[in-house]
Design a protein that fits this description.
By secondary structure, the protein is an all-alpha fold. Helix content is 68%, strand content 0%. It has helices at 6-17, 22-28, 34-47, 53-62, 66-79, 85-94.
Length: 98
Amino acid sequence: MFYVHRPYAIEALAKIEGEAAMPRLIETLKDKQNDVQKKAAEVLGNFGDKVAVPYLIETLKDSDADDVTKSVVYALGQIGDSTAISGLIQGLKDHVRD
């Protein structure tokens, strides 16, 4: 058995399969490891496909990890779909730090 650094595996999968990897990447947003969620969000943002927007918004709502939420917000900005606006505004309210 060998060890694979999962975020690199996500990046490789995206390079090999292209947008055909989107369903797997969307599923990976639910992973328990923050670095895996972060990389999945980055790759989905790079694809720029609006299909990912509701899944990214869900991840934004569910995650308390700053690095994940930053990657999700950046990905949503890269995609540029106006349907993300309400989710981003709610995310601003939910993630306010004291």
